Amino acid sequence: MSKDYKSFSIELAGRTLTADIGRVAAQANAAAFMHYGDTTVLSTITASEKPRDGIDFFPLSVEYEEKMYAAGKMPGGFNKREGKPSENAVLTSRVIDRPMRPLFPKDYRNDVTISNLVLSVDPECSPELTAMIGSAIAAAISDIPFNGPCATTQIGLLDGTFIVNPSDTQAASSDLKLTVASTREKVIMIEAGANEVPEAVMIEAIYLADSINKKLIDFIDMIVKECGKQKHEYTSCSIPEEFFEAIKNIVSPQDMEEAVFTDEKQIREANIKSLKAKLEESFADNEEWLALLDEAIYQYQKKTVRKMILKDKKRPDGRQMNQIRKLSAEVDIIPRVHGSAMFTRGQTQICNIATLAPLSDSQRLDGLNAEETAKRYMHHYNFPSYSVGETKVSRGPGRREIGHGALAERALIPVLPDETEFPYAIRTVSETFESNGSTSMASTCASCMSLMAAGVPIKKMVAGISCGLVTGENDDEYVLLTDIQGLEDFFGDMDFKVTGTRDGITAIQMDIKIHGLTREIVEGAIETCRQARIFIMDTCMEPCIDKPRSEIGEFAPKIEMISIDPAKIGDVVGKQGKVINKIIEETGVKIDIDDDGKVSVFGPDRQMIFKAIEIIKSIVTDIEEGMIFKGKVVRIAEFGAFIELAPNKDGMLHISKISEKRIDRVEDVLDIGDEVTVKVMEVDNVRGRISLSMRPSDFGDTPETGGHRHKGHAVEGRDEGINRDLPHNRRKGGHNKKRQ
């Protein structure tokens, strides 16, 4: 054991959180070996010795690695080795990144990697939360410049009571899944999924988490005091002030204002390109300044936009601070798909397509925190380069796309119908046609309308909007911006996204670029988003489609569900699947059977679905004396015919029971394949024999038509049009051949 090894512990939500420092990973800039209950995570941070050349951003990478051994499980697939990160791992990496990135120096260009390795999982203690705290500790005690510490807490809501750092079981039934990161002074990150939680309750939960974060920060301060390293010096990549002054002599502040203040993104980009060409010509002999020109122009634009918004209360496109861009909505714009909608807000345009499928097509999840489960609703988001007028080869969704899709997915989960009411797996895909700010919120609106157009009986309409922020030097000097466009996002301090119904919040995602928000700003942003999303529903979404359609789309699969005795599942499936495959072949449907006896039957033809259900019911229904069936002749013997009443259920129709008149040969009346209506006269369960009759006199007073259908193929109280005269109550069909 290293002589520098020290261990620190704190009680957190009734469980012990321990950080071992100096015990492992000594060659990293810093490492925190974290234990929360039996959950164990190794959090490390490393930095390159020199800045990366030719970049104008801070190159931070955050990794969250899920190892299946942590939950005592084998990886799925043939390789039996962990592959690309799961969606949960990607989203966790983003949640760690978002609060920590602003706390590093803005002009720091050294590569930094924060890595979290999950080694064991205790269902009572979240490995994601443990990694968030471990990352903050590692950064705080390292020699890497970092203006922390920060801390993170999760809040649940069960039966109206807040739960701090809920367990897996508690989180599964919680009305709120909230993650809040804070510095000592302010909230710096909010991520939430909620079941229509009112704004006031959400704010209360946020600041409960913030109060716990402050206690965690005191704990981290103690660790830093004992184990913290001296922060190293670094090469600043800030723009020299004399360079800015030289630029202003060529491009005046008025010139820059005229260039950036327009409601057309393409015009703005053309204006900036023209100014850049002018500056490149002026500084052609100064290679050092030319190398910094892109960053200098960016900073010049940023200062110009921020000054005009904050001081002059003027937005780049001329809108009022709380004004939403022009809205429009359409449904059914794509033929043959199950549902489609397009939502446009200014120069942001999303087309969403909904697809319905059997529950068996739900996404299978193999995670650390629970046994393998299925995800019934999936929202996928795509962001092609053409949506911003660029050219780039598509290599699949990146972390941003996965994050945006997950946010819109969380937004709609609370209003989806239960699978017993609507037994479908649901996928919505948002295709970004055009982007200029907050496509994830446009995706929420578009997917809500797409679901309604597809006939998904969602409980309430959901909309989303983003609120921006520009701050001054003092906490009380700020401006909130409703519906931020790309320029306001790039140069502003906050992107606060909120989705919800008229009655409450369903999701939140807050990103900031400053060192935290005051409570006044948080409350103001939440209220601004509430008003805006109701405006969007009232003026745009509801006039387009105000409620879910009563029927699913023409091309969507039709699904019906029944429940059977689990003990009779084997009868429906049959040996080597012969029975169920025969039903599928006969009706053209697809059948899924769960272990609890839930049977889903689906296909394009509802009539064939009901036929398959009738067959299944006939299989699982015990045959009793007096039942009437429409069966098929499957074998003929000298003494009578065998009638298939249901798959693997045959009855014996004696020659004497075929007609009131004497018959010499069965073949004179019946052929194999004929459909006949028969009545069960006797059931011998000991011998497994069922005696049948076609004689009209045995049907008693049963009317020729009428009555009602019994389970399966049985018809109780009628013979469905029996012809009382020979050739008797039969339908000719098939050929006279033995049953195979």
Overview of this protein structure:
It is found in: Cytoplasm. Residues 713-728 have a biased composition (Basic and acidic residues). This is Polyribonucleotide nucleotidyltransferase. Residues 626-695 form the S1 motif domain. It is an enzyme of class 2 (transferase). The N and C termini lie far apart (76 Å). An eight-stranded antiparallel β-sheet has the order 8-7-9-10-21-20-18-19, with helices on both faces. It has five domains: 6-227, GHMP Kinase, N-terminal domain (Ribosomal Protein S5, domain 2), CATH 3.30.230; 241-310, Arc Repressor Mutant, subunit A (Orthogonal Bundle), CATH 1.10.10; 327-502 and 514-544, 2-Layer Sandwich (Ribosomal Protein S5, domain 2); 557-618, 2-Layer Sandwich (Ribosomal Protein S8, Chain: A, domain 1), CATH 3.30.1370.10; 621-740, Nucleic acid-binding proteins (OB fold (Dihydrolipoamide Acetyltransferase, E2P)). Mean pLDDT is 90; it is low at 703-740. The chain is 29% helix and 29% strand. It is of the alpha+beta class.
